[in-house]
């Protein structure tokens, strides 16, 4: 479904992705873990060309993603949930959800709103349809952002550290929504530090460090007998907390 | 005869020439309106250029802004006036005023637009792009509507400055309010007092409503935000 082939990315002189090869299969729940600065976010941002690789290829459904076709290809395949939510503050919640379906997918207002309400119910915020994002808590905003991603009904949803900017007490409400989502047939790519979530939801976990994929495998593999020393050190540190 | 600066007979003389002032007032209004339209077009265009990713467009915008911000408006207008005269281009003084003021104010508005755009967190653009909006659509639906709130007060300042700057047309005998007030007084009764005071009042009448309504609009936006906050805490 998404395939990265020998992807390299430089920010100036900084080599942040080094020959990354990764394939995400349809319906798969892929979780990417690793220390800060390891290239996790850049990897997933290459999947929708928010970052364009310095070299290497990205394929979506077998189609090569290029600077030229990125808008069109992204429009019909993926949605993203950001660390900082990035809701549109000048629109109410409902409008946040319906903007892209109406403007890009040419849905009628009624149709888009019906969909939006369905997904707001799914994230438990149907009573917030007409308030502005600035009045919601962080956890609520992120749930709205997830509903916004769902309302575009894409096959792939990319989560870039969705709980890292949240207060500890609201992390779980967002994770609960994501766990509920994982039961659907949506392809999920999730960058996270939440090991409990990774363990429960992931079909496959990828560990990255210093711009490279170090190890990948099932949750059992990772949490019972990781092979690489760096993986062990990372998991040891993060699980002890 | 009473020779005081504001002697009653001077006011009488001005009243008798009122049509001249009314005409001049409308020349100033006309030049202001058209110059403002030109300035907004240039300002938004170059503002988008300078906040975008294209290095060439960015460079062009930079040169434009720096050139017109760092040379006097009077010099620009005079230069255009004599330059065009020599080049044999036949433009009226009002047209020269419109172009000169429009291009000059456009440089300032471009900076206002750039600041407005860059003050919106980049995450907003990224969210729009990740949904499949083009850069232009992201600007139209997401960024510019948010920038308006930030850009409005400085934008109105620029509009007011533009109206006041129509007075440089007096340097090329432009038929504007400043020029005609001065000309009327110096060619006739030397009634500078009433002429300048009237001129000033007319400028004030043009500019004050703008600043007033801009303040009202700002307040309205603030109240609206406060109201939606209250709505939530009441729940």
**Quantity of strands of chain B, as a count:** 0
Q: For the report, how would you describe the main beta sheet of chain A?
A: 6 strands, mixed
3D shape of chain B: flat
User: Low-confidence stretches of chain A at least 5 residues in length (pLDDT < 50)?
Assistant: none
Rg of chain B (CA only): 22 Å
Cα-to-Cα separation, first versus last residue of chain B: 76 Å
- H/E element order of chain A: EEEHEEHEHHHEHEHEEHH
State the share of residues found in helices of chain A, binned by percent. 25-40%
Biggest sheet of chain B, in brief?
A: none
Task: List unreliable stretches of 5+ residues of chain B.
Answer: none
CATH architecture assignment name of chain B: Orthogonal Bundle
Helix content of chain B: over 70%
In terms of structural class, how would the helical and strand content of chain B be classed? mainly alpha
Tally of DSSP β-strands of chain A:
10
Global shape of chain A: globular
Query: What is the mean pLDDT of chain A?
Result: 93
Q: Describe it for me?
A:
The complex is a heterodimer of chains A (241) and B (235). Chain A has 241 residues and is of the alpha/beta class. In chain A, 38% of the residues lie in helices and 25% in strands. Chain A has a six-stranded mixed sheet with strand order 6-7-8-3-9-10, sandwiched between helices. Chain A has a four-stranded antiparallel sheet with strand order 2-1-4-5, with helices on one face. In chain A, α3 (93-103) crosses α4 (109-122), α4 packs across α5 and α5 runs parallel beside α6. In chain A, 48% of the residues are buried. Chain B has 235 residues and is an all-alpha fold. Chain B has a single domain (8-234), classed as MetI-like (MetI-like fold), CATH 1.10.3720.10. Chain B has nine helices and no strands. In chain B, α2 (18-51) runs antiparallel to α3 (55-69) and α3 crosses α5. Chain A binds chain B through residues 48, 50, 71-72, 74-76, 78-80, 82, 84, 86-90, 99-100, 103-104, 131-132, 134-136, 152, 158, and chain B through 121, 123-124, 126-127, 129-134, 137, 141-142, 145-146, 225, 228-229, 231-232.
């Amino acid at each position: 479904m998404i395939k990265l082939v020998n992807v390299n990315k430089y920010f100036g002189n900084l080599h942040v992705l080094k020959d990354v090869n990764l394939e995400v299969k349809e319906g798969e729940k892929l979780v990417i873990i690793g220390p800060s600065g390891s290239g996790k976010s850049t990897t997933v941002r290459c999947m929708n060309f928010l970052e364009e690789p310095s070299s290497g290829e990205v394929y979506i459904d077998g189609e090569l993603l290029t600077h030229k076709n990125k808008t069109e290809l992204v429009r019909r395949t993926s949605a993203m949930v950001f660390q900082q939510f990035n809701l549109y503050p000048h629109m109410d919640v409902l409008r946040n959800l319906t903007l892209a379906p109406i403007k890009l997918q040419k849905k009628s207002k009624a149709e888009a709103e019906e969909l939006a309400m369905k997904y707001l119910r799914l994230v438990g915020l149907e009573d917030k349809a007409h308030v502005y994002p600035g009045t919601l808590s962080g956890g609520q905003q992120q749930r709205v952002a997830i509903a916004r991603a769902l309302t575009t009904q894409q096959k792939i949803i990319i989560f870039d550290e969705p709980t890292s900017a949240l207060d500890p007490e609201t992390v779980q409400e967002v994770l609960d929504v994501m766990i509920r989502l994982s039961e659907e047939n949506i392809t999920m790519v999730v960058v996270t530090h939440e090991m409990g979530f990774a363990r429960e939801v992931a079909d496959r976990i990828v560990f990255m460090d210093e711009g490279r994929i170090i190890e990948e495998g099932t949750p059992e593999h990772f949490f019972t007998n990781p092979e690489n020393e760096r993986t062990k050190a990372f998991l040891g540190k993060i699980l002890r907390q | 005869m009473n020779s005081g600066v504001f002697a009653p007979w001077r006011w009488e003389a001005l009243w008798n020439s009122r049509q001249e002032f009314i005409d001049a007032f409308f020349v100033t209004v006309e030049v202001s309106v058209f110059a403002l339209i030109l300035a907004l077009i240039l300002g938004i265009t170059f503002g988008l250029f300078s906040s975008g990713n294209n290095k060439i467009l960015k460079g062009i915008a930079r040169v434009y802004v720096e050139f017109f911000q760092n040379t006097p408006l009077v010099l620009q207008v005079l230069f255009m006036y004599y330059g065009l005269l020599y080049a044999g281009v036949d433009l009226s003084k009002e047209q020269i005023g419109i172009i000169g003021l429009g291009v000059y104010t456009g440089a300032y508005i471009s900076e206002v637009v750039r600041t407005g755009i860059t003050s919106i967190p980049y995450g907003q653009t990224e969210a729009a792009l990740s949904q499949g909006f083009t850069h232009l659509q992201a600007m139209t639906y997401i960024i510019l509507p948010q920038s308006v709130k930030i850009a409005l007060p400085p934008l109105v300042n620029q509009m007011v400055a533009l109206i006041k700057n129509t007075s440089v047309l007096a340097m090329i005998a432009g038929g504007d309010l400043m020029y005609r007030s001065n000309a009327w007084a110096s060619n006739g009764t030397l009634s500078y007092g009433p002429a300048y005071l009237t001129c000033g009042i007319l400028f004030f009448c043009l500019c004050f409503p703008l600043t007033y309504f801009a303040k009202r609009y700002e307040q309205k936006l603030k109240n609206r935000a406060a109201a939606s906050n209250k709505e939530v805490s009441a729940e």
